[in-house]
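Morning F.,

Quick status update on the modeling queue. The single chain you submitted on Monday has been processed. Sequence for confirmation:
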Amino acid sequence: MAEFSLTSSAVADGGTIPRPYTCDGEDRSPPLLWSAPPAGTRSLVLMLDDPDAPGGRFIHWLAWGIPPDTSGLGEGEPAPLEGRNGFGSVGYRGPCPPRGHGPHHYRFRLHAVAEELRLASGVGVRELEQALGPRTLRLRSSLVPTNADPVRVATRNLGRGRKIDEQPLDVIARQRVRLLYGGAAVTGVTVVGSPSRTPGTARLSYP
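Structure tokens below.
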């Protein structure tokens, strides 16, 4: 029997998740491909979580109701039914690891299910896992990339010819911040990152 495998043309097992699929980029789901599921599969369930988050396991994507005769999901393509992620919204939300927290692993796990799940869209991971229970077939495929690519703040003009140089930042979340540099302030600029404390760099402070 052929192996039930899950792959992506954009994300490699053990590699890094490119910026477009994180909260710093377009925050869209990566393209996923899988081989034919085992005999008896009635539906597919996809989960994406981060077991290394500071508060424990963090859910990035819950998806189910996927027909077993499909071979994947395209970039940014939603599943027929999707659940509530750790951010409180429904659907995919990409990696946003906090600064200095070390490596994070993002587990894409595809379950072959022996029957359709009777769940409404928007339920959480507990309800989904309870519904899976004995309905999950033994075979499961997974893809586990690591931290997202480094994020950089683009150079911005501050008037009178002064600029803020590019500074590396770790991804956390979309937030409006104030950029302070040499006493000049620019407000209402949307960037992604955590406050930089490195001497000689621009400082980021939350309003």
